[in-house]
Amino acid sequence: MKILVCIKQIPDMASKFKPNAANTWFTETDLAFRMNEYDEYAVEEAIKLKEKQGADPSDLVVLSVGPARVVEALKKALAMGCDRGVHIHDDESNLKDPWQIASLIAAYAKKENFDIIFTGMQSQDRGSGQVGVTLAGDLGCSCVTTAINFSLEAGVVTAKRELEGGAKGVVKLKLPAVVTCQLGLNTPRYPTLPNIMKARKKEIAVLKAAELSAEGPRAVTEKFYHPVKKGTGLVLEGEPAALAVKVLELIKEKTTVLRG
Amino acid sequence: MKTLLVFEYRRGKLTEANLELFSFAAALGAQTAGVLIGAETLLPAYPGKLYLGDIVKCKDYNPEVHADIIMQAAQKEDPDYIVFIHSSYGWDLAPRVAARLKAAQVSEITGVSEGKFETGCCNGKMRRLVRPATTKAVLTIQEGAFCFTGEAEGTPAVEKLEPSADGAGLEFAGYEEPEKREVDLAKAEVIVSAGRGIGKKENVPAIAELAKSLKGELGASRPVVDAGWVDHNRQVGATGQIVSPKLYVACGISGAIQHLTGMRNSEFIVAVNKDKEAPISEVADVMVIADVMPFVAALTEKLKQ
Questions:
Q1: Does residue B145 form part of some domain?
Q2: What would the mean pLDDT of B284-292 be, rounded to a whole number?
Q3: SS3 content of chain A, % helix, strand, coil (to 5)
Q4: Residues 110 to 129 of A: which have CB under 8 A from any B CB?
């Protein structure tokens, strides 16, 4: 079985974001990067599937599009248990739209004939939620989004989609298929030290984005900015005890919950 | 300018968010037609054209068959924009329609400005203004961003469409109902919720104690529930419970949109967070910038005095 998992490296979401010189995305100065959280669930599910194959030899490839820094995210996925990495080197990936990113991945995946492709349902930084579904369309395979449960029996995927209010939709798909993963699908493992050591020997192939796809953008970011402050709330700072006194006064003044 | 609004029929009901599609079209100043894969007996109220696919024939919910019906409606209407709500229906279906049209898609729109669309990014902390580079565009709008204040009335002129795709690669096998909840947070007057910012599972009892001191219930954000720190019975948000207590205290919750959707109608919101820019500040009446646990301990102590 050939399995692909697509991951993105994103900045820590607790960071302060500053626009770049062109005002089209954030500047990367002073940001710490990590694997997109949704993708950690995708990697875990792919590894679980590989482990279930038993004697049937499987090939689990982890792929990321981006500049040199994304190799760190690939290494983490390899240390978690992926077999080999593919780095689509693209220094401008952050300025590309989801369609262009999906086209890059599709150009690579078309030659490899994967049975199943996992990815996160969205990235934490861009949040478009488009790449997985668009990739499936490009490859002509079926796709389920927002999976919180996954199984594969006799070539048929059964997945549960998370719907609003806690309901679930159950879907069966034939392979080849793309599955986009929601938080809570599984419990992503931490790489162990021996596996981190082993991962150092695993191959990471580098492909140049420009040689894979020359698709132009379908949507262009014209501006990147802080939201107009909608919150009109009071901002309090200081020592915990003094803050507690103030907050308690406000609760008594503005609500009825402590009366009677 | 023409829009084709895609109404959502979810498990036997038209969702309330459908009305926001009209507000969005009004913000664009666009003419509207609609498409619904649903039931003839339950139609949205408006005086325009409605393309109708049958939910049973469209294999409720086979996305490939639904996309086929929407494409048929798009061919008849030739709209500039096809608009969805950014829900589990919209985000699943919109990219499939965009791919068929080779059109731009802009996800989770929060505002409109001269043919460009504002959308949130970086976990709600930043915004992007996006311009479609194709003549048509597929849009999903954030639920709650285009509130509908008018009266929905009128009867649409229905044109029925038959599916021309069988969606054979995918089989819809039914719905699972939400698990029965032991805690009805919707009835609570006070909710104190724990987010990832509380740091570790061992800190949950201190949050629960603050809730108790305020005669309220413990709530939680999604990551805390996913991590197994708090039972999913107590999850507040779009996929958990929608609440509107008199007092909501958010402890270490950054304010992902799915959480804000669940609690923004609370009467008084106190948020405790280290990050002044956390998106929870958009809805908080009081934003306490502090380390969460020392503040929680101090407030609990004051309440006991």
A1: yes
A2: 96
A3: 35, 30, 35
A4: 121-122, 124-129
ipTM above 0.90, yes or no: yes
Confirm if A103 and A213 have CB atoms less than 8 A apart.
yes
The average pLDDT across B165-177 equals 92
Q: How many CB atoms lie within 10 A of CB A220?
A: 16
From chain B, the residues in CB contact with A106 under 8 A are none
Q: How many CB atoms lie within 10 A of CB A38?
A: 24
Bridge partners of B35, per DSSP, are B6, B51
Mark whether B212 and B262 lie in a shared domain.
yes
The domain total for chain B is 2
Contact B238, B261 (CB under 8 A): yes
Residues of B in contact with A221 (CB under 8 A): 128-130
The answer to whether B116 contacts chain A (CB < 8 Å) is: yes
Residue B227 has pLDDT above 90, yes or no: no
Check A256 against B177: CB less than 8 A apart. no
Helix/strand/coil for A117: strand
What was the pLDDT predicted at A230?
66
CA distance B88 to A180: 12
Give the C-alpha distances (Å, rounded to integers) separating B15 from B9, B10, B11, B67, B269.
Answer: 6, 7, 9, 19, 27
Q: What is the CATH number of the domain that holds A112?
A: 3.40.50.620
Identify the pLDDT of residue A260. Answer: 64
